[in-house]
């Protein structure tokens, strides 16, 4: 799959996804110049050493003036900046609304003012019929992008996916640290299921999402696993302690719910979801739902192999 060309600004660009995009673009020789827009100055210095050709802008997505200056001459805007921790969103909801909703409003407004041709938002499976504050803020972000989409203006699209394997702050580094310290693996519920993709999958999805019709959400046909299978893949036979679900969590996730499915098309590797105020597509079977408990499941051996290849620095894709 070919890459992304032009001047590319990534909000939250010093995070796992932003770093992976820049690394892959550099390795594959994309015809792209990257602008990393992030408020995390601690990550800028080491990233600048790795990628000296990048431009770095220290700023918050709610800072209109700084963002407007950074967007001058930008061809592609990847909006990855967000607060993302589910339990914290239940206690610090105002902060999540500020970053994920107000920040996204500013991103949309400034992208329109700057005339950025292509804008893509990074969403989550938790935005599909959300029950927690984090998912609700991301669902609103999706609506903001879709409302900004017109047939003739800048192209606003979105991608929605589940958990990224071994990304910063995810469950896998936490479980590995527990193994290294000699303690038991602590998981919420062994029967809880989650969707998994790799960073390479996520970047492929973004590249594809930049090419779809404005106002659409691209959703991968991801595989999933139970937490028990994940724990066994990380540390076979290691003691496990179940601590119970956290605030804002649900036992199973969904990338596409029954109502949304009426507005979605099957494009082969992905589902493409239109605005819920649009016209019914009705291509998918009645009552269709893409849930993590019913999706194709990883086996323990498959997940262990994926993690081993990622640890070896190999390019790993799980969506065919």
Name the features.
single chain; 320 residues; alpha/beta; Rossmann fold; nine-stranded mixed beta sheet; three-stranded mixed beta sheet; 11 helices; 16 strands
Which helices and strands appear, and what pairs or packs with what?
Layout: E1 6-11, H1 16-28, E2 32-38, H2 41-50, E3 55-58, H3 64-70, E4 76-79, H4 86-91, H5 93-114, E5 118-124, H6 133-148, E6 155-161, E7 163-164, H7 171-181, E8 185-187, E9 193-197, H8 199-209, E10 217-220, E11 223-226, H9 227-234, E12 240-242, E13 254-256, H10 258-261, E14 264-266, E15 270-273, E16 290-291, H11 300-311
Parallel strand pairs: 1-2, 1-4, 2-3, 4-5, 5-6, 6-10, 7-9, 8-12
Antiparallel strand pairs: 9-11, 10-15, 13-16, 14-15
Helix pairs in contact: 1-8, 5-6, 9-11
Spatial shape: globular
Order of helices and strands: EHEHEHEHHEHEEHEEHEEHEEHEEEH
Distance separating the two termini = 12 Å
Average of the residue pLDDT scores: 95
Strand content bin: 15-25%
Number of helices: 11
**CATH architectural arrangement:** 3-Layer(aba) Sandwich
Report the C-alpha radius of gyration, rounded. 19 Å
**What kind of oligomer do you see?**
single chain
CATH superfamily: NAD(P)-binding Rossmann-like Domain
Class inferred from helices and paired strands: alpha/beta
Order of strands, main sheet, comes to 3-2-1-4-5-6-10-15-14
Number of domains: 1
> Helix amount, in percent?
25-40%
Q: Would you tell me which CATH topology applies? A: Rossmann fold
CATH class: Alpha Beta
Unreliable stretches = none
Largest sheet: 9 strands, mixed
């Amino acid at each position: 799959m070919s890459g992304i060309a032009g001047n590319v600004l990534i909000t939250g660009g010093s995070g796992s996804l932003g770093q992976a995009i820049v690394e892959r673009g550099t390795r594959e020789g994309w015809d792209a110049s990257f602008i990393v827009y992030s408020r995390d100055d601690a990550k800028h210095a080491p990233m600048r050493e790795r990628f000296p050709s990048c431009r770095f802008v220290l700023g918050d997505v709610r800072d209109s003036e700084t963002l407007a200056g950074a967007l001058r001459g930008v061809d592609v805007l990847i909006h990855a900046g967000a607060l993302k921790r589910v339990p914290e969103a239940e206690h610090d909801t105002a902060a999540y609304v500020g970053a994920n909703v107000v920040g996204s409003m500013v991103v949309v407004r400034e992208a329109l003012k700057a005339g950025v041709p292509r804008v893509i938002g990074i969403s989550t499976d938790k935005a599909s019929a959300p029950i927690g504050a984090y998912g609700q803020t991301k669902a609103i972000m999706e609506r903001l992008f879709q409302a900004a989409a017109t047939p003739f203006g800048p192209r606003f699209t979105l991608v929605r996916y589940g958990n990224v394997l071994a990304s910063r702050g995810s469950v896998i580094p936490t479980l590995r640290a527990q193994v290294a310290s000699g303690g038991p693996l602590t998981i919420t519920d062994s029967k809880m299921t989650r969707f998994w993709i790799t960073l390479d999958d996520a970047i492929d999805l973004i590249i594809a999402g930049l090419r779809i019709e404005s106002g659409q959400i691209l959703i991968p046909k991801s595989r999933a696993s139970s937490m028990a299978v994940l724990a066994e893949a990380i540390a076979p036979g290691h003691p496990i302690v179940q601590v119970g679900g956290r605030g804002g969590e649900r036992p199973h996730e969904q990338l596409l719910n029954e109502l949304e499915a009426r507005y979605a098309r099957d494009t082969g590797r992905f589902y493409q979801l239109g605005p819920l105020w649009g016209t019914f597509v009705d291509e998918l079977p009645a009552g269709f739902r893409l849930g993590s408990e019913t999706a194709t499941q990883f086996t323990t051996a498959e997940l262990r192999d994926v993690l081993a290849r990622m640890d070896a620095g190999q390019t790993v894709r799980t969506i065919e």
